[in-house]
Amino acid sequence: MVKQQLTPSCLFSGAAACMAVCFTHPLDQTKYRMQVLKSSNSMLSTMYRFGLRDGIPSLWGGLSASILRQGTYSTARFGLHNHLSSQLLQTSGRDRLPASWNIACAGVSGGIAGLIGNPTEVVLVRMCADGAKPARDRFRYSNPLVGLWRVWKEEGAKAFGRGIGPNVTRSVLMNVSQIASYASAKQSLLASNNMTDNITTHALASLIAGTGLLQIVRNGLRDEGPRFLMKGWTPAWLRLTPHTVLTFVFMEQLRRLSQLTVSQQQRDTAKM
Asked: Which of 45, 68, 205, 208 has a CB 3.0–4.6 Å from the CB of 186, allowing a cystine?
């Protein structure tokens, strides 16, 4: 029973994240380029500079790597969270999980997903940052699969572990702030405000989850000091908020579409 629920949830979550990143990728790319340049220029001026130099379509350079990363990392973190929470619901006999249990499931699944997604994160960073580097220093991966192969061939498997500590920590915080916040917010909205399970509720709950990302800021300031805010944080935060909203809205709509399709198939079968 759990496997039947897990598979479509994984697919919907990964697909929704891939759809969302198509809209937010220019901000993600700008974040990595600001980090490479170590510049104090604003996000908008940085985007304008590269858009003017290379053309507006260039802001979506490296999108294939973003899609591959979301297809692995987000599928894993949402799918694992769904699996863990489903198991806990079954063993406990509860109708809904307490917030603390949601947080625990989100943290564990986020950490595992961070490990799974780190190789694609390495390639993503390189493909996005290439445009900010001198021509002689660029990796020039034609696509992320070629990038993964070249990293393995030229640098060995250890290269896939670069930045794994911060990435796993970020993934844990991200999952807790997004998934746990969204699940709890949605449950509360449906239970206490006479709201129905529709796109308005999904958007509001996802917006609440997006504002939960302030925890990441607090941790960044604590661990790295004020310079944390100068390392491409503005486009990162501006990307994460709409990315969170779009991901959950797309995910819920894909689930609803799937349910409608199944219902229609059942009605058609009953008529036969």
From this structure: 205
